[in-house]
Amino acid sequence: MDTMYIFVGIIGLVCLLGFFNEKVTKLTYEIALMLFSTILGVIGLIVVTLWENTDAANVIQQFQGFDIHDFLMHGVLCFMLFAGSCHMKLRDFKEQARQITVLAFVCTLLGAVFYGLLIYGAGLLFGSHLSLPVCLMFGSIIAPTDPIAATGILSKFGLPKKTSFLIQGESLFNDGVGVALFVCFSGMVSASGGSAEQSMVLLMLKEILGALAVAVGVTLLCFLMFRFIKHSYLKIFISLLTVSLSYALCELLGFSGAIASVICGIMFSELRSRYEDAEDEEQSKLFDSFWETLDVFLNSVLYVIMGLSFIVVLKMEYVLLLAAIAVIANLIARSASLSISSLIIGEIPDGFSRGGFITLFTWGGLRGGLSVALAMSTKGMVPDDTYYIILGCTYAVVFFTTVIQGLTMKPVYNRISRNVKA
User: Fold this and answer.
1) How many CA atoms lie within 13 A of 42 on its CB side?
2) 97 sits in which H/E element
3) How far apart are CA 84 and CA 229, in angstroms?
4) What is the pLDDT of residues 355-387, one digit of tens each?
């Protein structure tokens, strides 16, 4: 099917589902898009099954086969990350630099390893033949929390400022860490030999330091143009150039484009606050409005695409058992990694107890499009049956964390906040 027709169909669903939710169900916007598009995906599967080889079935299969990996990793990820970070203040980041660093790096690494070990153990118990490197690669797919969900869903529940900033900061930076871990573990899957520990350390340093250098250099150069021009729309175009050029250079050089995109956003926020004059207030509003609108638009499209594609879980054998194992393993791995990270994180923000902090961040650890895109990229790397297990279980975790945890996040937070220290 022509790309334009797919695009029109997806935008049509975004509008129709958003309208239905606002007038009828009144759920959180992002949750409603994924939930209702998933229901439509199930209906589509029924249509394809009952009326195979019809025009309607062919159209539905085109939508359900949309390449999320290419759309996200080679398309819109950099803009989503920039949009999420370009309103973050550097002074706020400095205040919580230790906590964000521990959660984004240590917690993500531990979460990937713990999840991989749990899946490996479950495989031995139930007779599956997933190797340890494959399970660790699977862990790196599940470990990163989602910045889209963090900013779009969790921000609506009235979380305290520091806690909200910490959740957002972790999710923005651990995307790049998750990709670096995925590259390392997928290399172990593809080829054996060498020192995995040394390779991982070198890879992480290369991805992070390289991304930092590229993002700082490109942002400083582009901001010179941004600062000294008056054309409002050209300022926006320069910000688009900044993040896309940084991401492209990182992809070319083997650095983390995700981390570079976040750094570009934070630097733009800081430089704008320093150099924009009071007379530029109208331009500043236009800039912020553009990036907020683009962020919501791309998020909406991604949630609908994920919902329509969720039906892939039904291609797994023993679907309910595997989905349950994937979800439970995610909660255990996330909780265990947070328990260890909380010992070195320093001060717990906003007066939460350590137990309350672990519970809140475990239940608030929503997963999203990046995990699905990484899972899709394993096709051809592992046998087909293993690929559908990885992809199907990833979808199960994304659906559970986005819809179930997202819908119940507010009562969980309210219960924990009753015990917050005065």
Assistant:
1) 7
2) helix 97-101
3) 25
4) 999 999 999 898 988 888 888 888 888 888 888
